[in-house]
Amino acid sequence: MTTNGHRKNATVWIQRFNPDFDRRPYLQPYSITARQGMTLLDALHEIKTHQDGSVTFRRSCRHAICGSCGMNVNGRNVLVCESPLKDHLDGKGRVTIRPLPFLPIIKDLVVDRAKFWEHYRQIKPWLLPPDDLPEREFRVSPEEVKALCNAEKCIMCGLCYSACQVVALNKGYIGPHALLKAFLRTLDPRDSAPGERLDIVADLTGVWRCHTIFNCIDACPKSLDPTYAIETLRNLAARRLAFEEERRERQARFGEPVEVGPPVRMEPTARVESPVQTGQRIT
Amino acid sequence: MTETITHDIIIVGAGLAGSWAAMATSRAGVQDIGVVSKLHPLRSHSGAAQGGIAAALNNVRPVAGTGPRGPLEQIPPGEEPVDSWELHMFDTIKGSDWLGDQDSIEIMVKEAPSIIFEYEHMGCVFSRTPDGRIAQRRFGGHSAPRANYAADYTGHVLLHTIHEQCLKQGVTFYSEWYCLELLVEDNVCRGIVALDILSGEVHTMRAKAVMFGTGGYGRAFAITSNAYANTGDGVAIAYQAGVPLMDMEFVQFHPTGIYGHGILMSEACRGEGGYLINRDGERFMEKYAPDKMELAPRDLVSRSEQTEIDEGRGIGDDGKGIYLDMRHLGREKIMERLPQVRDIALHFSGVDIIDEPAPIQPTAHYSMGGIPTDADGQALANAEGDPVVGFYAAGEAACVSVHGANRLGTNSLLEASVFGRRTGCAIAAFVKDGGELQPISGDPAERNRQRIGALMEREGTENVEAIAQELKATMTDQCGIYRTEWKLVAALETIRSLQERFEAAPIMDKSSRFNTDVLAALETQHLLSFSEVIAAGALARTESRGAHFRTDYPRRDDQNWIKHTLAHQSDAGPVLSYRDVVIDWEKYPPQERKY
């Protein structure tokens, strides 16, 4: 490894496989110059556009919101767009990029997600609102939103799914991504069919199949907690009738504002002062 | 031979515009819909929008006596509203620098609340006020807090919500299929040709109506917030098919892209109170927009930044950056309202915005121009407004035109949703009213197979990516924030020489399975095609308006230039014509645009 200011050489080992020609996947090394601030995705692009156009991978947004570029890097599932190259180089300047494990390979780093999407559709990811829609929005309190645990931020990248040992062993298991989505819809006070969804997930291909190994939490690039979601769904399934009754009661109160009281300020009223005086230099 | 696929309706693009259209047509009873997208629908770039979606809901108001940057509170029941569709309309018109069509703007702002409520009823997880209403924040160029938000993930939650509804409706998706050609003969649309990326097979897809919701063209610039996918494919394909493009010279530069990368730092950073600071530590916006400061519209803020940079007050190794300072917002507010932005700055700059200012720079962000349409998404064939029968467009790919010369933040999610929904209803009506499958001459699939075959076999010493890079550098330097005649002339020459050189750029991947190398070449071809239109329109427009700024013509010229640019393709390059802007001269006549 040579060092020259912000630049150094790196060897990117990429798992290659085109089922039309290759009998089995193999690793191919590419040498590149690692620039300051380069991400793993930048490195893949550098290789594809200037060395070997046949290297194939998915990507789009570049900032961890579209969920396209999940790959297995040095044995860990990551989104390559938000991963700095230098953080993944070993002492000899090497990094190994493979497709997400346990999914059929379409070509090189592109995997077949058909089952992944099928499981997502299986839990009916759409909200089923009550028949009587209000004229304006449903009143939902900030606490009720908080109870959804940010599950709406899931980008369906599949890092958790592909990291899950149960998915690897049991193709029937619908996986942490689908169960997290089921949690989101079931916990939403606007949903009128929580029981129906609990029926779907509370069987041996759903919440009871999870072995709480926590790989999903470890893999999630958005710091979400599918294991907690699964535990919650288990508890709700165990008291399904009571939960449905609670939901009906909650929905009967939709017309009213949540906790009407004196106006609550959303921000401190103190005047916002600049921390930087005009003309002052930032150090 | 591969099979010809037939649907009543084919929609290309599965972001907000395309998905809304699919859902609306399906709800209207036309169920035979095929949605073609080069990405899985949930990967669409609508999901990258961060700060909010505009609508005058009157859920919050500024606390009395705290000034334009003070805190907000929920409006107590029964108290006076602070916002209205009329205010939203005026802000949008002023933001557009009087190039937006005011009839379309009126439709958009009036339908805004209903679209937000519909999202909410479909399960969209918005942030909330303490009494449970949808939370709102300030945004640039808006005179009231009307950006309805879900933290800084607004586009993401909207996209997932609408996609789920499409699944519920049973819409057929062709994920990772790439549209190659729009089939128009005698001004009547007949379908498309599309490549199944996985298999490499090319199909003719016939339909009674085709809609494009294919997104913008920001990838023509070196520093951009846009996804790799945003190569303006739909715009270029329509242009090749003889459909004109409108107002392509209007490209929005967002003031806060991460320095060196261009990735978006939401305008919500400034909406929540962030400052822009130059090398000397000055909040320089007080020189350019003393009233609105950092919350002036994007064209003005980006130009102000560029002036600071050009005059030597930028930051960073090359002096092309500016600081975005949010430290005074405090950890709690940043973690609650701007979590994604904080992650982005951490990952791409190594900066924690809680403790340090983030280095940013202007970044090519939004395409105001596109396929001209009426307010029902019906594509127009010429300056007279004749329709291209059976062809529709909405969202960033279209130019309806509500954004005119400059879009206000949070109006794009709104536009894609409102006009996506309207277009869906219009297409459904077109099919129900007797829209028919039209005959197609020749074998378009075979024609495209041969085209791709020729592309894959060609030889030469050029490199597709090197050509794309040179184009992007040219567009940024010579057709960017500040433009002038000699630069635009030079840009046009460069673009034309790049178009020629492209013919000698070989494809490295010769396989048919999931060939993204071929896609990159086709996308580059699209960039080269519409970039010429951007530069030609910019050269012809001898005034400064909104995002189009000519240093040799620094004033707005209402006498000659309140008109839309239309460009038709020809062998000799774009042929320009002009179309009147719809203006209510009584109510909203052009004014000086000050913030």
Brief write-up:
The complex is a heterodimer of chains A (283) and B (595). Chain A has 283 residues and is of the alpha+beta class.
Give a quick set of tags describing it.
heterodimer, A: 283 residues, alpha+beta, Ubiquitin-like (UB roll), Fumarate Reductase Iron-sulfur Protein, Chain B, domain 2, 2 domains, six-stranded mixed beta sheet, two-stranded antiparallel ribbon, 10 helices, 8 strands, elongated, disordered N terminus, disordered C terminus, B: 595 residues, eight-stranded mixed beta sheet, 22 strands
The computed structural class of chain B is alpha+beta
Large-scale geometry of chain B: globular
For the termini of chain B, the CA-CA separation is 60 Å
What is the fold named in CATH at topology level of the largest domain in chain A?
Fumarate Reductase Iron-sulfur Protein, Chain B, domain 2
Number of strands of chain A: 8
SSE ordering of chain A: EEEHEEEEEHHHHHHHHH
**Helix percentage of chain A:** 25-40%
Low-pLDDT parts of chain B are none
Q: For this structure, what is the CATH homologous superfamily of the largest domain in chain A?
A: Alpha-helical ferredoxin
What profile does the largest beta sheet of chain A have?
6 strands, mixed
**Could you say which overall geometry of chain A the principal axes of the C-alpha atoms support?**
elongated
